[in-house]
């Protein structure tokens, strides 16, 4: 028994090497979301502007929409606001999931809602407002469930609340036309 | 010509490394002393030729020889001369050569300072180092040659160095970090040589200790410089991002920290042997795995090098030989090694064992966090990502028990410690820590957040406990003034490093809690108030640098009407690489940094500015520096040198 114990590091390393070998032949940048083709996880999140209003998945059903994870702290998110606003004008429903970076839920840091509302309002006035409304993911629970790694990220959710696409990075005309628009059109209820 | 000379020198270095990896090892098994004696000159020759190769590459960069592909892709004639030198290790090929040079440098150092070692052991250690060098030189020569020419068609101007790397921090960061990575090769070679001979005693541990300490010293400094560079250059005001490449340097650091502590037990008490050897193997193994992760393209990272599966395959094969081979040897040889020493539950051995457990858990967490996305995907479970929150939370939970133990550790004796005598001094330390923490927090503008209090408490506990312990030891020599010179340098080193850790913990907790940051829109003359400081944008004007253009902003900072400082932030546009870089303006004080980065131009003659007031952020790097200084002090300990000077005459007779 003791003999085998000393070989454990070797076995662990060999297993690792196997993974590294297969990893060499796949592209790390190509990734698909774990939540794809699954229903939106359960949540109950407050509206950023009217904290009394609580949004739940069932209220969002009935129409295909984009769920856009963003924050005013994130330069790339701010850059895509303009184009998203254009999409809204073309009739695409976009819901914002506000990801508050400065406040880390693990540390219970203080949080000033009024200041955040002011920030958001100012940013949307400056860059354009693509959102129907914004949900505040203060504990990052929905972001975690969705497998969000940063901002901006965008999901396409169909009328039944099933996630149909997960895009990491900003949405620009090229990304929209080549990747997201086809999926959006496919799942959009006539 | 010079470039070909470099190529030739590297080829010679390869030949020498092959000789070094075979001749002395063969000699060691056939008891042929003449072959063993060859190890030293071979090691020196290897270092000289690799240094010539590196010099030739630097020459090619300084003369802007764009017929060399590596130069054309990573330098330009408008690049300032000091960045032309650093550009020589800014690319994958060049940094590999630097890696080789460092490895050969360590090998030469071992050859120089191993007079006290038995010839057999010396030959084996140098042979192992030669084997590792051979692997890396072959990689450099055949898979990623830094001297490759693009003749007959070559560009008239180079593509310039990545602007991110055009910074003072970048001049220092890679060489220091590589010194650390590669330095663990020495401890690795010592471990392998000992496994071959089956000799692990406190003498062996005393030989390894300075080498492990030196490698750890460089790695600590290298990581700290990297963090400092990211803070100044990336414009986000962050100092650690849990990026896979950062993690690749953090894992060997954690294993190395465990190693230097475990070595102390093996040296003083002759126990923990199999553990220490495994740590010596893993510190370097993790360096190698890190190099593989960075250079093979298995993971996505901001600073991985351009990728090529051929290189990845070569490195993986090399890992299999070096790590797999060493672990196989470990498995087959370690059965016969037994530790005899006995110790009680409450003893320094147990506490250091706890230290090792926490450090290795931390290492495992970083390892899994870094590689889990890869495992997950290769198992066909889809891709996921693990970000900052996971690591932050895990380290939050780990730091608390770790720091509590650390404050206790130095007080406890080897073998067995009575609980009662420690209660009074430690209670006093705890009370002092509480008073200091509350005092500091009360002096901050707002008393809030359990994180700051917790961090202060832990930091003060570790720091005050370390200081009090040193005072106690000094008093044991009779009087403090008498004791100051009598106490070992390594004891001061330990104390300083522990205080460094305390400073780091306080820095992290306070920065996380009290940092205020705002993104503002400002016109000339506007005033933005952040955390009591009034920032006035006095001027924005066009910049014209040697290889960049852009804008610069001038700001005046006042607090309560008093002028504090003048800040100069730049937003550079590098013409050849066509990239935008922020050069943040930083005004540093021990208690806070004022940090301004210039953003994009907004309509209406206005500018977006990001203003941070970062409390105690300096403490993070100060902690790193103190830890490195601690290691340096420990290295100066007479014990490591006395042994050598005593044995020198004897060694010369042989």
TrEMBL record, chain A:
InterPro entries: Periplasmic_diS_OxRdtase_DsbE, Redoxin, Thioredoxin-like_sf, Thioredoxin_CS, Thioredoxin_domain, Thioredoxin_ResA/DsbE_sf. It comes from the Bacteria. It is found in: Cell inner membrane. Residues 34-185 form the Thioredoxin domain. Keywords: Cytochrome c-type biogenesis, Disulfide bond, Redox-active center. Gene3D superfamilies: Glutaredoxin. Pfam families: Redoxin (PF08534). It is a single-pass membrane protein. Belongs to the thioredoxin family. DsbE subfamily. This is DsbE family thiol:disulfide interchange protein. The lineage of its organism: Bacteria, Pseudomonadati, Pseudomonadota, Gammaproteobacteria, Chromatiales.
């Amino acid at each position: 028994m003791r003999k085998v114990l000393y070989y454990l590091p070797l076995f662990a390393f060999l297993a690792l090497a196997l993974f590294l070998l297969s990893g060499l032949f796949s592209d790390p940048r190509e990734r698909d979301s774990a939540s794809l083709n699954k229903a939106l996880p359960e949540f109950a999140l407050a509206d950023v502007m009217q904290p009394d209003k609580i949004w739940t998945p069932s209220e969002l059903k009935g129409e295909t929409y984009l769920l856009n994870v963003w924050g005013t702290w994130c330069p790339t998110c701010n850059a895509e606001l303009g184009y998203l606003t254009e999409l809204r004008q073309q009739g695409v429903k976009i819901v914002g999931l506000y990801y508050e970076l400065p406040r880390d839920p693990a540390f219970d840091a203080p949080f000033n809602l009024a200041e955040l509302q002011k920030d958001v309002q100012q940013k949307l006035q400056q860059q354009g407002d693509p959102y129907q409304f914004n949900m505040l993911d203060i504990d990052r629970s929905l972001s975690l469930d969705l497998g969000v790694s940063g901002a901006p990220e965008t999901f396409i959710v169909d009328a039944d609340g099933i996630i149909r696409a997960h895009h990491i990075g900003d949405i620009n005309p090229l990304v929209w036309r080549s990747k997201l628009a086809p999926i959006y059109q496919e799942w959009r209820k006539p | 010509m010079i470039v070909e000379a470099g190529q030739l020198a590297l080829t010679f270095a390869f030949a020498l490394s092959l000789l070094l990896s075979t001749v002395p090892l063969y000699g060691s098994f056939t008891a042929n002393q003449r072959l063993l004696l060859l190890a030293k000159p071979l090691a020196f020759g290897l270092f000289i030729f690799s240094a010539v190769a590196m010099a030739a590459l630097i020459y090619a960069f300084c003369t802007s020889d764009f017929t060399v592909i590596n130069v054309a892709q990573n330098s330009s004639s408008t690049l300032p001369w000091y960045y032309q030198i650093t550009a020589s290790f800014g690319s994958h090929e060049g940094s590999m050569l630097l890696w080789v040079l460092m490895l050969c440098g360590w090998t030469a150092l071992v050859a120089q300072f191993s007079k006290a070692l038995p010839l057999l052991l010396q030959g084996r250690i140098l042979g192992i180092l030669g084997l590792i060098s051979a692997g890396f030189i072959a990689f450099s020569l055949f898979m990623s040659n830094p001297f490759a020419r693009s003749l007959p068609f070559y560009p008239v101007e180079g593509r310039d160095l990545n602007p991110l790397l055009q910074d003072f921090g970048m001049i220092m960061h890679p060489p220091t970090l590589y010194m650390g990575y590669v330095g663990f090769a020495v401890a690795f070679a010592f471990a392998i040589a000992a496994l071959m001979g089956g000799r692990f005693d406190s003498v062996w541990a005393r030989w390894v200790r300075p080498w492990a300490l030196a490698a750890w010293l460089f790695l600590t400094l290298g990581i700290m410089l990297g963090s400092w560079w990211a803070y100044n250059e990336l414009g986000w005001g962050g100092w650690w991002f849990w990026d896979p490449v950062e993690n690749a340097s953090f894992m060997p650091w954690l294993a190395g920290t465990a190693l230097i502590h475990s070595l102390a037990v093996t040296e003083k008490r002759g126990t923990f042997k199999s553990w220490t050897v495994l740590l010596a193997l893993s510190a370097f193994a993790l360096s190698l795995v890190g190099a593989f992760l960075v250079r093979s393209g298995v993971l996505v990272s901001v600073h991985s090098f351009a990728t090529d599966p051929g290189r990845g395959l070569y490195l993986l094969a090399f890992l299999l030989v070096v790590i797999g081979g060493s672990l196989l040897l470990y498995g087959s040889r370690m059965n016969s090694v037994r530790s005899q020493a006995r110790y009680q539950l409450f003893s320094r051995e147990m506490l250091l064992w706890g230290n090792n457990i926490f450090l290795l858990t931390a290492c495992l967490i970083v390892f899994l966090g870094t590689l889990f996305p890869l495992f997950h995907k290769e198992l066909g479970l889809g891709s996921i990502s693990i970000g900052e929150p996971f690591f932050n939370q895990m380290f939050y939970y780990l730091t608390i028990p770790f720091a509590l133990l650390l404050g206790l550790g130095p007080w406890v004796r080897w073998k067995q410690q009575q609980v009662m005598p420690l209660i009074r001094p430690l209670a006093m330390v705890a009370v002092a820590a509480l008073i200091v923490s509350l005092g500091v927090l009360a002096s901050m503008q707002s008393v809030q957040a359990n994180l700051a209090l917790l961090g202060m408490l832990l930091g003060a506990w570790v720091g005050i406990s370390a200081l009090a312990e040193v005072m106690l030891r000094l008093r044991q020599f009779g009087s403090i003034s008498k004791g100051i010179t009598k106490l070992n340098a390594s004891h001061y080193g330990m104390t300083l490093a522990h205080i460094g850790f305390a400073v780091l913990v306080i820095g992290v907790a306070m920065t996380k809690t009290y940092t205020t940051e705002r993104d503002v829109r400002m016109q000339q003359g506007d005033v933005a108030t952040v955390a009591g400081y009034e920032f006035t944008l006095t001027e924005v004007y066009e910049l014209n640098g040697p290889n960049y253009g852009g804008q610069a902003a001038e700001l005046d900072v006042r607090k309560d009407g008093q002028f504090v400082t003048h800040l100069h932030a730049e937003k550079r546009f590098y013409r050849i690489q066509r990239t935008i870089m922020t050069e943040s303006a930083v005004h540093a004080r021990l208690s806070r940094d004022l940090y301004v980065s210039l953003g994009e131009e907004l309509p209406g003659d206005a500018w977006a500015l990001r203003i941070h007031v970062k409390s105690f952020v300096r403490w993070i790097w100060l902690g790193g520096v103190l830890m490195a200084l601690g290691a340096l002090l420990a290295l100066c300990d007479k014990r490591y040198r006395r042994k050598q000077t005593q044995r020198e005459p004897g060694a010369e007779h042989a």
